[in-house]
Structure to design on (509 residues):
């Protein structure tokens, strides 16, 4: 018998991308098959959405404050005193299209993606996944589908909430620095378009899907004991974070800057 | 009822099952004995379709399950109740939710009937007033009994017990043995008990099969196993370190 050769890393990478794609496909197909795990879904909405509000509030608030601070310095230094009020649209655009989706995406990866991997990984090593099969439940439909749907729904809601907090904090910082609040608000409302906000929400929905599928995939792939679960949780955070950052660039390129109807 | 022919299963270079043949008759209780790590749990996971063999054939009531799709396996798994070694209760669900889990998926009963069956199943395993407890609030023995209640709730035709007496004290282990016997008498189910506890095996089994080196080395009634001329069987049932079995 020929000895087993170690697979080339690229083939492992392609195989893993294939596994994630397959899991996403099966989880999505689970949406259209009965029974829909309603209780599980509602639980996930609470876990992913409601319980993330404190961390999203803090992240968005300080993201807005620091962005407001740097924009203030930038306008003050390069254009001159009095021009800071024109920073409103820059702050709002940067927050809604890039900063808030990325920050919320990374925070949810750390909070939710790792928890999904750890929970499902623990179920795997304690034979609860086998128990699901033996009791007539498809683990993908029971565990992954509700998490995927809840994540895709809650991420845009969290990002919209983060947008409001971030923009408000950027505004508060600038007003506290003596910026003319009327010009700041007028410019913000004039140049910030509905599509800018929607762009961020589309990104958030995609990030939600990536975080849920990678978290669940790592959980289902967990091996060994507690160490294996810990590794799965760490990998889920690392892989999903990288996925969020890479996808953010390609989505920024792919989504049009203005919506022409 | 269950026919296994030439079953092979390897994990990397570790060849766990090496051409195993086994036949389980309808209505009997068969105990599969063997060392820890000999592949007993792997064997029952193949019977219920949780693992796919590398080679060989597993037939349940005449249906070869090796080539079935996941959806087709669903109907086969409906016939089985599986008591896991560590019970495998769902951590996030209460005792009642655990017990009704399979029932809701395999049977189409109204909620009142489901509640009745949950209470009946818990009563059969000697548990009362535990429906609202979470698994972490239960002792090891109670978890096993809840696991058993969950497995019998939907009326399976075949019960698989993965080391039912492991990890619990001898008195509770004997109570579990009594439950296995009662299940067979009251529900007339076919049972496969995986164990390395000889007291338990002799008590519950109509026949015993010894698994060693990935194959069944002897199968027979408890007295035949007790009086076996096979030195491997004798070493195992008497729990002796000296003998032909060296890999421990």
């Amino acid at each position: 018998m020929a000895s087993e050769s170690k697979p080339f890393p690229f083939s492992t990478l392609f195989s893993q991308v294939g596994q994630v794609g397959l899991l996403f496909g099966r989880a999505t197909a689970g949406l259209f098959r009965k029974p829909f795990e309603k209780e599980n879904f509602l639980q996930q909405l609470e876990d992913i959405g409601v319980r993330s509000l404190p961390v999203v509030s803090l992240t968005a608030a300080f993201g807005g404050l620091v962005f407001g601070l740097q924009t203030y310095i930038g306008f003050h230094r390069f254009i001159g005193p009095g021009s800071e009020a024109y920073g409103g649209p820059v702050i709002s655009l940067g927050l809604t299209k890039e900063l808030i989706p990325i920050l919320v995406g990374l925070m949810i990866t750390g909070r939710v993606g790792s928890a999904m991997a750890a929970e499902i990984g623990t179920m795997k090593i304690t034979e609860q996944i086998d128990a699901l099969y033996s009791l007539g439940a498809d683990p993908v439909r029971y565990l992954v589908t509700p998490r995927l749907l809840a994540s895709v729904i809650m991420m845009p809601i969290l990002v919209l909430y983060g947008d409001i907090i971030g923009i408000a904090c950027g505004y508060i910082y600038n007003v506290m620095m003596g910026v003319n609040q009327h010009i700041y608000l007028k410019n913000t409302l004039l140049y910030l378009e509905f599509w800018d906000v929607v762009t961020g929400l589309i990104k958030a929905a995609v990030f939600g899907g990536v975080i849920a599928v990678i978290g669940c995939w790592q959980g289902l792939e967990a091996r060994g004991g507690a160490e294996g679960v810990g590794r799965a949780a760490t990998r889920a955070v690392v892989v999903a974070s990288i996925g969020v950052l890479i996808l953010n660039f390609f989505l920024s390129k792919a989504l049009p800057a203005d919506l022409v109807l | 009822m269950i026919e296994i022919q030439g079953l092979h299963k390897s994990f990397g270079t570790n060849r766990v099952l090496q051409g195993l043949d086994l036949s389980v008759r309808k209505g009997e209780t068969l105990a599969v004995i063997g060392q820890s790590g000999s592949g007993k749990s792997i064997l029952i996971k193949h019977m219920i379709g949780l693992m796919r063999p590398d080679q060989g054939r597993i037939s349940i009531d005449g249906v070869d399950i090796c080539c079935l799709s996941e959806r087709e396996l669903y109907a086969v798994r409906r016939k089985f109740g599986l008591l896991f070694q560590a019970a495998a209760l769902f951590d996030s669900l209460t005792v009642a939710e655990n017990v009704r889990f399979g029932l809701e998926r395999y049977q189409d009963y109204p909620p009142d009937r489901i509640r009745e069956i949950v209470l009946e199943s818990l009563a059969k395993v000697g548990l009362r007033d535990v429906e609202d407890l979470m698994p972490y609030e239960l002792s090891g023995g109670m978890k096993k009994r809840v696991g058993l209640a969950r497995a019998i709730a939907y009326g399976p035709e075949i019960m698989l017990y993965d080391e039912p007496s492991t990890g619990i004290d001898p008195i509770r282990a004997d109570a579990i043995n009594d439950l296995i016997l009662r299940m067979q008498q009251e529900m007339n189910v076919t049972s496969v008990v995986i164990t390395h506890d000889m007291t338990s095996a002799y008590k519950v089994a109509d026949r015993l099969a010894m698994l060693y080196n990935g194959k069944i080395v002897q199968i027979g009634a408890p007295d035949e196993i007790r009086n076996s001329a096979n030195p491997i069987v004798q070493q195992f049932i008497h729990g002796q370190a000296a003998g032909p079995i060296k890999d421990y």
